[in-house]
């Protein structure tokens, strides 16, 4: 009996020591204890990718774990987003989203609820689109542009970076508010769309700041206004659409961070805090100065509200413009 009792004590002590050596078995283990995956639902090299990789570097340092970037491009961002949304709600798979996330439910069949099947973590950055026209178009402001369009019905074209993308939807909203029409020419990305504006093939393009500013400085295009309600800090001399005489128009390009639904509140709060700290980092500020983006720290609740508002806004635009995509 004594030997059996001694064996039980020894076995218990051994098992207890194994548990203490394996911290992953402890429910009380602090997040994060393993690498985190950040899904960017677009190809490398674009604005989403640059912001996502900078955020991954900041998070790796502040969280003390490697953040692995995974570019999962395809279907207008839907493939990568769906993969992230349907991952385990443990904080180890996060997804970077932008305006297309809010527009896609009105354009495609989306296999999840874009509001209730996610955990909003926080807004990262926001920026205007720049209303660019070919250099030799005989207009110098928004009012002259609108009058020129009216005087040349069905003769002017506008480029977009893709059917159903933010530049397409933002232009359609602009045309509806102004009460004019143009011919839409969709491209496969911002770069070829900008190339044809510079080359004079098309007349108008609502471009991201990072793509337009180098050509503006080289005097290869003209920029008439920014799409946001306030002027851009990167190009403060460019007026807003509202200042140019066209009211009730405001489009902001944004980037944000989400996780799957049922993400623990403590992890959501931790990630929001680290995100807001990253937006104050000098490296982040330096990058945003080159791209025309602005840091957008805030709460998770504020970001969720923006998503809801944008889903409703782009649904109205898609219906009013009768936009259909394959």
Give a written overview of the molecule.
The longest helix has 22 residues, at 300-321. The radius of gyration is 24 Å and the shape is globular. The chain has helices spanning 2-21, 47-63, 78-85, 99-107, 142-151, 166-178, 190-198, 209-217, 265-278, 282-291, 300-321, and strands at residues 36-40, 67-71, 93-98, 118-134, 157-160, 183-186, 204-208, 221-226, 252-260, 294-295. It has 326 residues and is α/β, with parallel strands linked by helices. 43% of the residues lie in helices and 19% in strands. The protein folds into 2 domains: 36-126 and 252-321, D-Maltodextrin-Binding Protein, domain 2, CATH 3.40.190; 128-226, D-Maltodextrin-Binding Protein, domain 2 (3-Layer(aba) Sandwich), CATH 3.40.190. Helix 2 (47-63) packs antiparallel against helix 10, helix 4 packs across helix 11 (300-321) and helix 6 crosses helix 11 (300-321). Strands 1, 2, 3, 4, 5, 6, 7, 8, 9 and 10 form a 10-stranded mixed sheet that branches. Residues 1-28 have low confidence and may be disordered.
Total count of helical runs of at least 4 residues: 11
Describe the main β-sheet briefly: 10 strands, mixed
Number of strands: 10
What's the N-to-C terminus distance? 77 Å
Residue windows where pLDDT falls under 50 for at least 5 positions: 1-28
Quick one: CATH superfamily of the largest domain? Bordetella uptake gene, domain 1
Q: Pairing-aware structural class of the strands and helices?
A: alpha/beta
Please give the domain count. 2
- Corresponding CATH architecture of the largest domain: 3-Layer(aba) Sandwich
CATH class categorisation of the largest domain:
Alpha Beta
What sort of overall outline do the alpha carbons produce when their principal axes are compared? globular
> Which range best describes the helical content: under 10%, 10-25%, 25-40%, 40-55%, 55-70% or over 70%?
40-55%
**What radius of gyration results from the CA coordinates?**
24 Å
Mean pLDDT: 89
Q: Looking at CATH, which topology of the largest domain would you report?
A: D-Maltodextrin-Binding Protein, domain 2
The amount of beta strand, in percent, is 15-25%
List the secondary-structure elements in sequence, H or E. Answer: HEHEHEHEHEHEHEHEEHHEH
């Amino acid at each position: 009996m004594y030997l059996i009792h001694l064996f039980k004590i020894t076995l218990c002590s051994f098992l207890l020591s194994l548990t203490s050596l394996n911290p992953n078995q402890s429910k009380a283990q602090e997040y994060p204890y393993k690498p985190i995956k950040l899904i960017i639902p677009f190809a490398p090299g674009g604005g989403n990718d640059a912001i996502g990789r900078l955020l991954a570097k900041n998070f790796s340092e502040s969280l003390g774990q490697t953040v692995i970037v995974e570019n999962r491009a395809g279907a207008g961002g839907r493939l990568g987003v769906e993969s992230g949304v349907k991952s385990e709600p443990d904080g180890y798979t996060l997804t970077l989203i932008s305006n297309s996330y809010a527009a896609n439910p009105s354009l495609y069949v989306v296999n999840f609820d874009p509001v209730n099947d996610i955990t909003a973590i926080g807004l990262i950055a926001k920026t205007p689109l720049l209303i660019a026209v070919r250099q030799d178009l005989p207009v110098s402001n928004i009012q002259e542009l609108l009058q020129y369009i009216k005087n040349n019905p069905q003769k002017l074209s506008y480029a977009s970076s893709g059917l159903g993308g933010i530049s397409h939807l933002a232009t359609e909203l602009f045309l509806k508010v102004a009460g004019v029409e143009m011919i839409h020419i969709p491209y496969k990305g911002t770069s070829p769309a900008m190339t044809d504006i510079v080359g004079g093939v098309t007349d108008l393009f609502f471009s991201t700041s990072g793509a337009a500013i180098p050509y503006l400085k080289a005097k290869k295009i003209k920029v008439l206004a920014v799409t946001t309600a306030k002027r851009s800090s990167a190009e403060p001399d460019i007026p807003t659409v509202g200042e140019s005489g066209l009211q009730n128009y405001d489009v902001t390009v944004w980037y944000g961070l989400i996780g799957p639904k049922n993400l623990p509140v403590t992890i959501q709060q931790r990630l929001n805090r680290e995100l807001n700290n990253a937006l104050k980092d000098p490296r982040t500020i330096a990058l945003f100065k080159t791209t025309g983006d602005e840091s957008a720290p805030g709460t998770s609740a504020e970001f969720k509200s923006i998503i809801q508002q944008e889903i409703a806004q782009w649904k109205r635009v898609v219906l009013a413009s009768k936009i259909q995509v394959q």
